[in-house]
Amino acid sequence: MELTLTTFTPTDRTTLKRLPKRGQFDHAIVFGILDEAFICHVGFVSEGKPVVIPTAYARIGEDMYIHGSAASRMLRSLEEGIDVCLTVTLVDGLVLARSAFHHSINYRSVVIFGTAKLVDDPAEKLKALHAFTDHIVTGRWREVRQPTESELRATTVLKLPLVEVSAKVRTGGPIDDEEDYQLEVWAGIVPLTLKAGLPIDDERLNGIEPPDYARNYSRKLGAGD
Amino acid sequence: MELTLTTFTPTDRTTLKRLPKRGQFDHAIVFGILDEAFICHVGFVSEGKPVVIPTAYARIGEDMYIHGSAASRMLRSLEEGIDVCLTVTLVDGLVLARSAFHHSINYRSVVIFGTAKLVDDPAEKLKALHAFTDHIVTGRWREVRQPTESELRATTVLKLPLVEVSAKVRTGGPIDDEEDYQLEVWAGIVPLTLKAGLPIDDERLNGIEPPDYARNYSRKLGAGD
Predict the structure, then answer these.
(1) Which of residues 107-126 of A touch B (CB under 8 A)?
(2) How many Å apart are CA B94 and CA A123, to the nearest integer?
(3) Cβ contacts of A15 on chain B, cutoff 8 Å
(4) Looking at the domain that runs over A4-175+187-222, which CATH code has it been given?
(5) What is the pTM of this model?
(6) Of A141, A150, B130, B187, whose CB is crowded by the most CB atoms within 10 A?
């Protein structure tokens, strides 16, 4: 299967110019990618130059929430409500073709353009923190100590609506040139997945056993909302 | 261990403002991250707004090469030699603390600022394509059909020198508030790694068996140069 493009509101920026046949419009694809991943790369412009920073996020309905310290440079800019590009990428496999030229990577990515705004309302901020925690581990929020008022104040949360959104997906094996299929070269896919290892106990646990969600962690199962 | 910052040539942009104690200067850390990962997020400014796109890359010495089609919008801009921010992130684990506030993620990231320039010289371009292929699978280049002249022309390669570079690394378990250590909550790390599954044969292989590098694929072993 070729790359596909999913767009909520197609704009100049989210209309794929190279391969328009890959276009596709589907909220489920976008939400599936955003719920499986938990790190995004946020781009913004600082003094006319691009800056890209990895950060954690959560989705609530049709809004993205980005988590970060108010002291970081990214958020000092974003607090004013600035243009961002938020990109989420999942790598699914290496595509090994018979020619160097046709090597590729299977991936799913979402690109979101928009203006990120600071979340001021304490109730909305708490809802976002709940989503951040449960996006990492479903159900974790209710087991841990909740944020104090000063922790809540110390946490900067930004909101970006899912309006100008596109997704690109590549799946399937290599597409070789017809004459290359006779070459004596192995071709196919090496699937890649982010896998969890055995949980590592904190040194000061005093015998508390790791819960199932830590023993059998999976992004496929653990997707947030 | 706390976050660390590694910078080749510290500048305003690569000097971490929030936690200066995390600063560290070491080429080996930067190269280790760049060689283990193979997807970067490239940010650039298009009509005053940020754009962030995932793409493949390879490192040759102290230069980064970015791979892409000349037809994509990113490269139409980058060909002129434009400012980019290239960010590479490896996620190593989830850090589950006893309070929601202290949850964190173990990761290693590199941020590179600079001007990306189009590679025109065919010999340098071929060297970069060699590095792209072998960065995905070491030794693959010599087994597959080499690029034709027209494939070489159809491939756009951009070069970004590793000059203004910083790295951030978080390792280790949660750091909880002293009074939270008494809580009956499991805390620790859920390690995460990009793991390869069994190789999937292309449909038209005619019995060629997958090589060892596809059967036992690992980014830790397979790092490029």
Answers:
(1) 107, 109, 111, 113
(2) 26
(3) none
(4) 2.30.110.10
(5) 0.89
(6) B187
